[in-house]
Fold this sequence. Notes:
- By secondary structure, the protein is of the alpha/beta class.
- It is built from ten helices and eight strands.
- The strands form two sheets. A six-stranded parallel beta sheet has the order 5-4-1-6-7-8, with helices on both faces.
- The longest helix has 15 residues, at 68-82.
- The protein is globular.
- The N and C termini lie close together (12 Å).
- The relative contact order is 0.18.
Amino acid sequence: xxxxxxxxxxxxxxxxxxxxxxxxxxxxxxxxxxxxxxxxxxxxxxxxxxxxxxxxxxxxxxxxxxxxxxxxxxxxxxxxxxxxxxxxxxxxxxxxxxxxxxxxxxxxxxxxxxxxxxxxxxxxxxxxxxxxxxxxxxxxxxxxxxxxxxxxxxxxxxxxxxxxxxxxxxxxxxxxxxxxxxxxxxxxxxxxxxxxxxxxxxxxxxxxxxxxxxxxxx
Length: 218
């Protein structure tokens, strides 16, 4: 029986692409580079802001990462100001979350976004205290796809891996969920495509949030 559901944030719960692109381009503009379009940004994000900036810099010609440290420092400051820029929940997500709560299934967020910004995004859209557990990137905890973050949630909820769903939209998420032994669900409404998700053979791939309730938990 499913006891909890862990969600990725960017590209799964929330459409944050405009905020990520906007902030990245502010950094690149400061360095005399860019801009990066949203389609490319979809492939730069997912592994933490440092890798995001490394990929963006490489795309703009800084293949050696000459400006990486400066860009990361600037990004951290600017993202604190702009992390909610045109952020919205994906269609069907509020209904999915409500349905999980009605079934007594606890809900958690595990993101590679900095922890403070993860909390800010979730509380701004869903309200404070709506989720049972929120975790972003934090010192001392390896980022996804390392299973450390998942294991912390399982321990906090006192549930087994097979009692937990994991939803995400990228290869990083598929590695995370499957690596931790969770029932892993690839979602196609986010930043990557079905082909990338299929390559990792998750238990499910879904095209809209309502499929979780209608197909997986029915």
